[in-house]
Write a structure and sequence with these properties.
Distance between the termini: 43 Å
Largest sheet: 6 strands, mixed
Helix content: 40-55%
Number of helices: 33
Strand content: 5-15%
Number of strands: 22
């Protein structure tokens, strides 16, 4: 049974719309749906149903309406103990339980939240798609039929405002993508309806200006100014005035993708240069590295945008949102000097300096970092300041090496520096800092305090011309993926290259008997039925998805059906090569080490292997030639043009289905949550259009994949989804003992229990704790650095308010309810309940079987490491303040219950 409130109230059953009788029954259901999965007091329902004084029979009429609704819900054939809507009597009123997928309002909120987060992170294209999908769920005003009959609830006005804000978010994302032509008419229509909305006016002005209609943009400003003065007695705000000045001056900032966000931060069309000694984009401890803000550098259109500031101008974040956080980040310093050989021509010096700055910014952005300032010849960038990633240190080192390679084209990195200048030098340092940012957690001007900037500056002084050195912390955190030269007395070393394969000892596969049985059954079923199957393995970081796929590949190779195994994986390194996953599967299918060419010999080898495979399957005629021509771009160093993607995708699908037709094929694609949208489309198309061939398409992903594709795998006849839950205690103990046996040690009983509690059933954590305990005297272990980084990266995928709720949950002892979070965090109770539900769906929290003493739903941390990382994230003063509030609320609640 599906419910729709974004428009006229509609209930859809298996056979179509379900009839609702009477205004009171519709109003009761409508109000409960607006507060789905929340307890609604009887008094609140009566106030909603009767605007004035309720009649004496009001309570009886409400009970009749509830009884009728229960009969309607009971008629749903899909209802069972684990699903379907249920209307419960729950003191002091009623609780309507509705699955999130069955209510359009819940789906809208999830999409709108994700779109807003993408917008704040600068993922404009993804934000536009998500926000458009959210708005497409609306069929008119909320509960339009009830509103027509005179219903005027505050919730209706709040949701109408939320719809307007989502629409403005969509326009901002579309404008950032350069699609001003596509949204101009929509903008014009809505700006005429609501002339006093300044943000909407600013967006319309920007779209008109980019169309070359400067006078129309100024007319739009005058209309809004007149409306504000006549209706509200106000003058336009600072940002809208800045947009007007920028239009009058033809300011270049209007050509920037996030022009409105820039002006929202500055209040002026151009950014003023801070006075000497003023903290810049990354205010760092040593005075020698105080940064100055620099104008946005040109960016190649194919590169993703760097993280940016909060969108213009959002309401202030509620109390409790963290503006100061402890983080582990990596700093990259690049020193370039042009020398005196430019003949004294300042224009040549400025041109070359600009080209070098663009090259550095491009490589930093491509590796997921942020250039935070420039002081003379030194550029400094930060990795992990806006959003923590578990591989920030590796990204920084790879970016440094890429910068040195790229600067060689200017002669700045060769044995004879350009124009007599010195070769560039690069240093990378990693450590713990305190980051202060905007209230939404995505500030474009974060302030970084700690020892990392000073240590990185000291390290830079030791780097020879044309070289790169990293600190001991960076080296120890990246040795599994990078190769280093000898370490110096300070522990710093030079990165020499990347490792061809991971050197980790894979954890033993324990506690996955049920999953292995399902995998074996899928292999047999695909081969027997000669039909493709999409198998998705979902799990949090470290749950063992890769290890499970390795076991699946082993089972396939030993299967009597004679499976062929083809593998591929997605990576953050693919940002400038969206179809790199196809490249890797092609290499695996043809038996070459890499399908991408770096020299002529490799290219000939890869092309010959591909030609042999294609000719064996399709012959040497027109079809084989066509396939080779289409797959050829994957063998070139330059990525194929987007116009060639459709034919290339068809050829890739035909090759894989041809391999499957010859013998059963297992195609394993890992880390699909990081794959770009074109690749996700190709995978789903392969699953749908492969035809009657024995193809088992097995993919792994983190739960974030379902945020991007909520219907992934749904509705397909042959689809199987596995969720890797944490290991039980016995399996965790067996895994830890096996890992410690490799290290040659055994733990005392008390310490073993402590470590098992910290591991929480995560195989990766078990491996890291075993590595941490190796060679020690078995003292109490600290959280391993890699585990902390993995958990911190997972936390940074949350919206700021959700993260703030976790801080309150920890202060409440790790078990909390919406009332407690509201009291500790200073937020509205309904908002606290919303984010607790969100955190449960994201697997940060789990719902307790036992309600609180007041009957409220209770939640607990799903993993001990999450709570430990949350506590480490929060400054001491904030943590102590939250705990004092939690103690006060607990004492107050206990006192009320004893009265």
């Amino acid at each position: 049974m599906k419910f729709q409130v974004l428009g006229p109230l509609t209930v859809l059953g298996d056979s179509g719309p379900v009839a609702l009788s009477g205004v009171k029954q519709r109003a009761t259901l409508g109000h409960l749906l607006l507060h789905a999965n929340e307890v609604v007091a009887t008094s609140a329902l009566m106030r909603a149903l009767w605007a004035g004084e309720p009649p004496p029979t009001a309570r009886k009429m409400l009970q009749n309406a509830v009884s009728a609704l229960r009969g309607l819900l009971a008629a749903d054939d899909t209802e069972d103990a684990h699903g379907g809507p249920v209307l419960l009597t729950h003191a002091p009123g009623y609780l309507l339980r509705v699955d999130g997928d069955d209510l359009d309002l819940t789906a809208y909120r999830a999409l709108a939240d994700r779109g807003h987060a993408d917008l704040a992170a600068g993922a404009w294209s993804s934000a536009a798609r998500t926000l458009r999908a959210a708005l497409d769920l609306w069929r008119g005003p909320v509960l339009a039929d009830l509103a027509e009959s005179g219903t005027d609830w505050p919730e209706l006005r709040t949701l109408a405002q939320a719809r307007t804000a989502t629409r403005e978010d969509l326009y901002e994302a579309e404008l950032a993508c350069g699609r001003h032509d596509d949204v101009l008419e929509e903008l014009r229509t809505h700006a005429e309806r609501e002339p006093e909305r300044e943000r909407l006016c600013a967006q319309l002005m920007l779209a008109l200006y980019r169309r070359g209609h400067q006078s129309d943009a100024l007319d739009a400003y005058r209309r809004t100014r007149t409306a504000l003065a006549s209706r509200l007695g106000l003058e336009p705000g600072r940002v809208l005035r800045a947009v007007e000045r920028a239009v009058l001056d033809h300011d270049p900032v209007l050509g920037q993708p996030d022009a409105l966000a820039i002006m929202a931060l500055d209040g002026e069309p151009r950014r003023p240069r801070p006075a000497a000694g003023t903290p810049g984009p990354a205010a760092v401890a040593p005075a020698a590295l105080v940064g100055f803000d620099s104008p946005p550098a040109p960016r190649h259109p194919a590169l993703p945008a760097p993280p940016r500031a909060t969108a213009f101008p959002y309401p202030a974040a509620p109390a409790g949102v963290l503006t100061e956080q402890h983080k582990q980040l990596s700093m990259l310093l690049v020193r370039t000097t042009l020398g005196k050989g430019l003949g004294g021509d300042p224009e040549d010096a400025a041109r070359l300096s600009g080209e070098l700055a663009v090259a550095i910014r491009d490589e930093v952005a491509r590796h997921g970092g942020k250039v935070s300032g420039v002081l003379g010849p030194v550029t400094f960038a930060l990795f992990g300041v806006v959003r923590t990633r578990e591989d920030d240190a590796e990204r920084a080192v790879r970016a440094g090496r890429a910068i040195l390679r790229r600067l060689r084209q200017y002669g700045a990195g060769g044995p004879v520096p350009v124009h007599g200048g010195s070769a560039p030098r690069v240093a990378v340092a990693t450590g713990d800092v305190v980051v202060t940012c905007a209230a939404d957690g995505t500030g474009a001007v974060p302030i970084v305090n700690g020892a990392v900037p000073q240590s990185c500056a000291d390290l830079l002084r030791t780097v020879p011309p044309g070289g790169i050195r990293v600190c001991a912390t960076t080296r120890s955190g990246t040795e599994r993926s990078l190769v280093y030269g000898p370490a110096g007395p300070d522990g710093a070393a030079e990165p020499l290259g990347t490792r061809s394969a991971r050197t980790d000892t894979p954890p033993a596969l324990v506690g996955r008997d049920r999953e292995l049985a399902q995998l074996g059954g899928a292999l047999d079923d695909v081969a027997r039925r000669q039909r493709p199957c999409l198998l998705t393995a979902l799990g949090e970081p470290g749950a063992g998805k890769t290890r499970l796929m390795a076991e699946l590949a082993r089972l396939a190779r030993r299967s009597p059906h004679g499976y062929r195994v083809v593998t591929g994986h997605s990576s953050w390194c693919d940002r400038d090569r969206p179809l790199a996953l196809l490249d890797r599967t092609l290499a695996s299918a043809t038996g070459t080490a890499s399908a991408r060419v770096t020299d002529t010999g490799t290219g000939d080898c890869a092309h010959d292997a591909l030609a042999r495979t294609v000719h064996a399957l399709f012959g040497t005629g027109d079809r084989g030639t066509w396939l080779l021509d289409r797959l050829g771009p994957l063998l070139r160093a330059e990525p194929p043009a987007p116009a060639d993607w459709p034919d290339l995708a068809t050829a890739w699908r035909l090759l894989l289905t041809g391999l499957a037709a010859e013998r059963p094929l297992l195609l394993v694609l890992e880390d699909l949550h990081s794959a770009p949208d074109p690749v996700l489309d190709l995978v789903t198309e392969l699953a749908d259009a492969a035809g009657p061939v024995p193809l088992l398409l097995a993919v792994t992903a983190r739960p974030e994949l379902l945020d991007r594709r909520p219907t992934w795998g749904g509705g397909r006849r042959d689809a199987l989804a596995l969720t890797l839950d944490p290991l039980d205690e016995a399996s965790s103990a067996a895994l830890l003992d096996a890992l410690l046996a490799v290290g040659g040690g055994a733990l005392p009983a008390e310490l073993r229990r402590d470590v098992l509690a910290r591991i929480g059933g995560n195989p990766l954590y078990a491996l890291e704790y075993a590595r941490e305990l190796a060679g020690r005297d078995f003292g109490p272990p600290a959280m391993p650095r890699h585990v902390r980084q993995v958990v911190a990266a997972h936390l940074d995928t949350l919206p700021p308010l959700a993260k703030a709720v976790l801080v309150c949950a920890s202060a409440l002892g790790g078990v909390c309810c919406a009332d407690g979070v509201a009291a500790v965090g200073g937020v509205d109770r309904s908002e606290a309940a919303h984010w607790l539900d969100h955190l449960e769906r994201r697997d940060f929290l789990r719902r307790s079987r036992h309600p609180s003493a007041t009957g409220a739903l209770r939640y607990a941390f799903r993993h001990p490491a999450t709570r430990e990382a949350v506590d480490a994230l929060v400054p001491r003063t904030v943590r102590e303040d939250r705990r004092r509030r939690a103690e006060a609320w607990t004492e107050s609640t206990a006192a009320q219950l004893t009265v």
